[in-house]
Amino acid sequence: MKQALEQALQAALEELLQDHPDAIAPEVHLTRPKMKEHGDYAANVAMPLARLLKKSPQQIAASILAVVQWPDAVVAADIAGPGFINIRLHQATEAEALKAIVLAGESYGKIAVTADAEKVNLEFVSANPTGPMHVGHGRGAVVGDALASVLNAVGKNVQREYYINDAGVQIGVLANSVWLRMQELEGETIEFPDGAYPGEYIVQIARELLEKHNYVSLTEMDEEARSALVGSESIAANMAMIRDDLAAIGINFDLYFSEQSLHASGRVSELIERLQSEGVVYSGTLPPPKGKEVEDYKSVEQLLFRTTDFGDDVDRPLAKQDGTPTYFAADIAYHYDKHQRGFERMIDVWGADHGGYVSRVQAAMKALTGRERQPDVLLVQMVNLTRDGKPVKMSKRAGTFVTLREVVDEVGADAVRFNFMTRRVESQLDFDLEAAKQKNDENPVYYVQYAYARINAILRKAEDEGHVMGELGDVDVSVLTSHEEQRLVAHLLAYPDALQKAADRLEAYRVATFAMRLAADFHSFYHKNRVVTEDVVLTRARMLLIKAVGQVIRNALNVLGVSTPERM
RNA sequence: GCGCCUGUAGCUCAACAGGAUAGAGCAACAGCCUUCUAAGCUGUAGGUUGCAGGUUCGAGCCCUGCCAGGCGCGCCA
Fold first, then answer.
1. Cα torsion for A329, A355, A251, A171, to the nearest 10°?
2. Read out DSSP for A301-338?
3. A51 three-class SS
4. Of A283, A437, A458, A521, which sits with the fewest C-beta atoms within 10 Å of its C-beta?
């Protein structure tokens, strides 16, 4: 319907502007007015034309209305305020759409993924395999997963991908930490250095490794070989834990991609060679960082990628002083690999502390593929964990940081997911453990789920009393005339647009706020109108209405990965 | 010092692509359960949208400058 209206207006505009060959008709964009008095749809097209045509917006709106050919469903269109065109539809036309919603069911609002759908790679979480995920990772995980679902729902072919940083010095630290604990468990006296990972999980891994391997033969091994063995097994153990924790909030990846595999297969060095042959690499020195005190700064000649030619601030090193590739070098190889795997679009979800990294990766991809803004990066801001309003002290060094798993176990997956999803990623998020645990109005997730459960309670009650909605075609929706009913209908019809907008802007939180507003409209309706009454016709119409509401709430929560209990 | 993000009601956040009277929840106050789930609803109060300029028919949103908070700033990832 919206499209039909927009087309009608667009056609009218073209006609009007025939006398102005140099004028370009603005794209018609209809909105749903906040206030019912402003009709079902509103268009502001007359306003931007005011200057161009040297007429008042009201006059222009009038000339548009004079030529426009509306679809049958339009009952009235008038000019209001500073030049809005407000369109009113036959109430029954809107309500008829309830039937289509119920018929479509789970697929209402969704676009099917076709064979030629755009291939999107969505990389998120990518927490280091050196320890458990913390709450900040959890936010990125939830946001990434929901965004993947949103994109999938609008017809994109989405792959969820996790990049395992299983290379570099941190892995050596991990191997060393575990080995020290193994020695300790065997009764040796060890000194546990500051830089090592202190957590209890390290001891647990050490214990498991001692069960699998003969300690004495390990001590007899060459140190490098032992470190490699302990390291890779520790990574495997940590990844198993991470996957398990992710599964606990309903997140599964299509692919876990190993950084180490890029080094092992020679793809990183191949990539560096390729860049060299293209002349965007040189040997040079970087100026010392400004504003930050670097005590032992030494100017060193390094292999540098001329990212400044592609929009970055300074050139970036591809190799460390010892000649091994930097993380950056591997990451370029990784993103280039995604490109070669045929993804038309890449989206990365990173923590805000990686913000300074965006321009260099995009610069590298521009150099390699000529494409701008790839990957598209979502920077997720920090989570401040509180309990009863007081900050929860976290220290990674002391091993006292709160893990994502602990939070999920304490407050539940639904509460964690929904709370992480109700805010834009750009804003920092305060997450209070006590508030998230409460099953009351402080907790938006229950508010929405409660609406769904309540709808089901009513439908059960209706059936118990012998009411049958019957064939959709027989339901007379013209009796749904109250303010609350019309609001609900309008809201339901806005769902596909809301989903599309969330996808276009990579803002999954919109689906959450949509669900909350819909739930609010439903609760309001519930208190003013009875569904099950003596009036058979009205009862059937309202059963259809709330069934459609329940369906849309369910669809929205499905996208967000939040459960929809039938009873609460 | 430079770059990115943020600043909206006492608190946590919205405001759909620059549109109509800036909205919700919590907290406060006053009401609503012998009728489909009170994990809910209705009402009252609460605002110089950090500050100052600018752009235009119109600015919370765009531009400039300040102020405040967060993140980052070579060979960690």
1. 40
2. -EEEE-GGGGT-SS-EESB-TTSPBPHHHHHHHHHHHH
3. helix
4. A283
Give the pLDDT confidence score for residue A292 in this predicted structure: 62
Widest Cα–Cα separation across chain A: 93
Q: Which residues on neighbouring strands pair with residue A350, listed in sequence order? A: A379
> A296 in helix, strand or coil?
coil
Superfamily grouping for domain A446-560: Isoleucyl-tRNA Synthetase; Domain 1 (1.10.730.10)
Average pLDDT for runs of 10 along chain A of length 568:
82 78 70 78 82 75 86 86 84 85 95 96 94 92 96 96 94 95 95 88 96 96 94 96 96 96 95 91 85 70 90 89 91 96 95 91 92 91 82 63 88 91 88 78 84 95 90 89 88 91 93 93 93 93 96 96 93
In the numeric block, the tokens 């087309």 are attached to A7
Using the C1' atom of nucleotide B3, identify the protein residue whose alpha carbon is closest.
A356
Topology (CATH) of A2-89: Gyrase A; domain 2 (3.30.1360)
Quote the Cα angle for A419-A422-A426, to 5°.
110
Give A154's strand partners. A111
**In this structure, is the CB of residue A284 within 7 Å of any atom belonging to strand B?**
no
Q: Is the CB of A412 under 7 A from strand B?
A: no
Q: Which residues 80 to 139 of A reach strand B, CB within 7 A?
A: 80-84, 86, 128
CA separation (Å) from A136 to A141, A146, A151, A184, A495? Answer: 9, 16, 23, 32, 30
Residue type, A118: E
pTM, rounded to two decimals: 0.93
At A124, list the tokens: 């998120």
Distance from CA(A216) to C1'(B69), angstroms, rounded: 55
A484, A502, A481: which is closest to A492 by C-alpha?
A484
State residue A540's pLDDT score: 94
Domains in chain A: boundaries: 2-89, 169-248, 446-560
Residue A480, token pair as written in the block: 């749904």
Residue A282's CB is within 10 A of a number of other CB atoms, namely: 12
Strand B contact with A289 (CB < 7 A): yes
DSSP conformation class of A146: H
- Cα–Cα distance measured from residue A52 to residue A23, given in angstroms and rounded to the nearest whole number: 8
ipTM over 0.85? The verdict is yes
Q: Which of A280, A314, A318 is nearest to A301 (CA)?
A: A318
Residue with tokens 């299509």: A254
Q: What are phi and psi of A161, to 5 degrees?
A: -135, 140
Alpha-carbon distances of A554 from A181, A456, A458, A483, A492, rounded to whole Å: 48, 11, 16, 23, 12
Residue A391: cis peptide before it, omega within 30 degrees of 0: no
Question: Rounded distance, CA A519 to CA A148, Å?
Answer: 24
* β-strand pairing of A74-80 with A41-43: unpaired
Q: Are A488 and A525 in contact (CB under 8 A)?
A: yes
Residue whose structure tokens are 């964690």 = A416
Closest alpha carbon to A83 in A103, A106, A58, A64:
A58
